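Fold this sequence, please.
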Amino acid sequence: MDRRWGTIGVLAGGLFAVNVVARLITRFGFDGDDAAADRVSLVMFVVIGLTLAVVAFRWGRLRPLAEWAGDVAVVVVVAMALTVLVGPLVVGHNPFAGGAGTFFAQIWLYLLAGTLGTMIGYLVATALGLDHRSQQLKRYAEVKAAKPRRVVRR
C-alpha cells in the first residue's frame, strides 16, 4: 500500500514539475508575450497528456482497469490542484489574479489533457491486445486449446 501511494505521489509531483517548468519558462523567457505563453501552455498540456498515456499503457498491461483507474484519477486531481493553486505562487502570481474564467479554464484544460491522455494510452494497449484483460483471455484460450477434447462413449 505504501508503494502504491508513493507511486501516486511521485507521478503527481512529476506532473506538477512539468507545470512549474512551463511557468518558469514563460516567466523568464517570454514575459509579456501572450502568444508564446499560450504555446508553452499547449506544450505543457501535451506533455501531461503523453505522460498519462504512457502511464495508462504501462499500468493497463500490468493490472486490471478497475485497479489503476482510481489511482490515475487521484494523480490527475492532486496534480491539477497543485497546478492551479500552488503553481502561480511559484512564479509570484496570485492563483485567482486572472479571474474566475482563467481559473476554471485551467481546471477544464487539465482535466481534458489528463482524461484524453489516459484514454489514448489505454485504448492503444487494448487495440494492440496488450491490456490485462486481453492477456487473460489469450491465456485462457491457450489453456483450452491445449487440452484435448474428451471423447464420450455411449
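The chain has a mean pLDDT of 89. The radius of gyration is 21 Å.
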